[in-house]
Design goal:
The structure is a single chain. The mean pLDDT is 97. Helix 3 packs across helix 9. The strands form five sheets. Strands 3, 7, 8, 11, 12, 19 and 20 form a seven-stranded mixed β-sheet that branches. A six-stranded parallel β-sheet has the order 15-14-13-16-17-18, with helices on both faces. The chain has two domains: 169 residues, Quinone Oxidoreductase, Chain A, domain 1; 136 residues, Rossmann fold (3-Layer(aba) Sandwich), CATH 3.40.50. It is globular and about 60 Å long. It is α/β, with parallel strands linked by helices.
């Protein structure tokens, strides 16, 4: 089968490798059909690392995937041959303290596709435990299957934040994760939603998904806008989804006294500074989001039922042979790209 290997920074090659085989009776062989390019893929492509997770040698990238079941072990009951499925990319151990507590995303032994040293899904076939597969609801196709992964993260963080109907929120960053947060809070009954970004095309998408006020960051400061339009109070929850030094600070500055700041973004820097006195005086609660837990099925159901055009996040598609071109487009924010998807 064909697979895309990152062999050094900004260099990807297509190679032929043996197809995987089912070894356990609860395993499923999936023909991968779509793979989304994620922010973490961008970090590995550009920097070769995320924190202490360092690429050594070559690795197959990719973890946002959907495909078709082509074979299954004898004990598999959740899916069947020919079924379209979304893939949950984190294979947790199921027995550690975090897994037992319902936090498989925090499993210390998790094997997460496309993260050193686990090969990802930018390949034609992959073997996955049946519990990591979710059948696509009627009306959804492979692209929505891909989008269920970032949307599951958005939903998980919104859940973690204790968001309630009627809350006001500000989302700093309108990439796929920021827009997933937006979709989640709009679907959940937010009273007012502010969204900021540097790219006008992404703010246009934010409007389509229900943002009440968009802020072009090169012309306005979201902190000033929020303070002015809330009578100086701030919002109930500030969500950070850009991974930049300034956006981390903005997510805490937009939050009201007694409010919350939720951190999704992955920074290139290992250390980020906050204004500790502002946070302390506001008794601000800061929440970090690590991937997702038990929200993939919900993400698929919401997409199937919602009238919001969430699938429009997929703006570009490329064949596997043009994966390097796709990655370069995404890291350089070219051509209004929001979500680029690889077809296999």
């Amino acid at each position: 089968m064909k697979a895309a290997f990152l062999i050094k920074r900004r260099r990807v090659v297509i190679d032929d490798i043996p197809s995987p085989e089912i070894k356990r009776e609860t395993d499923v062989l999936v023909r991968v059909r779509r793979v989304g390019i994620c922010g973490s893929d961008m970090h590995y492509f550009l920097e070769g690392r995320i924190g202490d997770q360092v690429v050594k040698g070559r690795i197959i990238l990719g973890h946002e995937a959907a495909g078709e079941v082509v074979d299954a072990g004898k004990e598999v009951k959740k899916v069947k041959k020919g079924q379209k499925v979304a893939i949950e990319p984190g294979i947790s151990c199921g027995v550690c303290q975090q897994c037992v507590k319902g936090k498989p995303n925090l499993c210390p032994d998790v094997k997460f596709f496309g993260t050193p040293h686990v090969d990802g899904v930018l390949r034609e076939f992959v073997v996955v435990p049946e519990n990591n597969l979710y059948p696509l609801p009627a009306g959804l196709d492979y692209n929505e299957g891909v989008l269920s992964e970032p949307l599951a993260i958005g939903l998980y963080g919104v859940r973690l934040s204790g968001f309630s109907v009627g809350d006001s929120v500000a989302i700093v960053g309108a990439g796929p994760i920021g827009l997933s947060i937006l979709f989640s809070v709009v679907s959940g009954g937010a009273r007012k939603v502010f969204v900021s970004d540097l790219l006008p095309s992404r703010l246009e998408m934010a409007k389509k998904l229900g943002a009440d006020r968009v802020v072009l960051a090169s012309k306005e400061d979201i902190v000033d806008v929020v303070k002015k339009e809330t009578g100086g109070m701030g919002v109930d929850i500030g969500y950070e989804a850009a991974g930049k030094r300034e956006t981390f600070k903005q997510s805490t500055d937009v939050a009201r006294i007694g409010g919350k700041a939720v951190i999704y973004g992955i920074p290139a820097d290992d250390r980020i500074e906050f204004d500790v006195h502002s946070i302390r005086r506001k008794e601000l609660k800061i929440i970090n989001v690590r991937r997702s837990a038990h929200t993939t099925e919900l993400a698929l159901d919401l997409m199937a039922k919602s009238s919001l055009p969430f699938s429009s996040l997929v703006t570009h598609t490329f064949p596997l042979e043009k994966i390097e071109e796709a990655l370069n487009m995404v890291v350089e924010y070219k051509d209004g790209v929001i979500k680029a998807v690889i077809t296999l």
